Amino acid sequence: HCGEEKDPVSFSFWLASTLPLESERQQDLLEVDTTAGRLQMEIESMQLLLSSSLKCESCSSSIAVTKDMFRMSGNGISGVFVNTHGFLHDIVTLMRVKGAKLQGDPEVEHSWFPGYAWQIANCRCGMHLGWRFTATE
């Protein structure tokens, strides 16, 4: 996202498309008539994100806080990846996850992040949460 910081219009559209929000909220941001209005809504969205927690879809246990989101790649804090079986995974990268049970040994084959091994992470209830990535070097 180099250079666009000087153009508030481009920046506001870039931010609307990269914030980890539900599709409906992203669409609302993209349809705002003014750049100032869009940026204000984005600030409000970010404030809500920073004060929120992420919960297991199955048992509603709190598994992480949104302030632990971080940028793992050039895609930002979230991205869509395809596994070797052709399934899409919309992920958010987090520094910490509470109560996750790791399954299996770290695996480097088919890692979405070069230089990192992955391990399946499940909630206490058994629901698949995602993967833990650890540096291999």
Index terms:
single chain; two-stranded antiparallel sheet
Q: Please count the helical segments.
A: 3
> Main beta sheet, described?
3 strands, antiparallel
Order of helices and strands: HHHEEEEEEE
| Terminal residue distance | 28 Å
Strand order of the largest sheet: 5-6-7
Assign a percent range to the helix content. 25-40%
Helix and strand composition category:
alpha+beta
Low-confidence stretches: none
Strand content: 25-35%
- Provide mean pLDDT, rounded: 86
Q: How many beta-strand elements?
A: 7
Shape: globular
> What Rg is obtained from the alpha carbons, in whole angstroms?
17 Å
Any overview of this molecule?
There is one protein chain. By secondary structure, this protein is α+β, with helices and mostly antiparallel strands. It is 26% helix and 28% strand. The protein is built from 3 helices and 7 strands, in the order H-H-H-E-E-E-E-E-E-E. It has a 3-stranded antiparallel sheet with strand order 5-6-7, with no helix packed on it. Strand 3 and strand 4 (88-92) form a beta hairpin. Helix 1 (8-18) runs parallel beside helix 3 (35-50). The longest helix has 16 residues, at 35-50. The two termini are 28 Å apart. The mean pLDDT is 86.
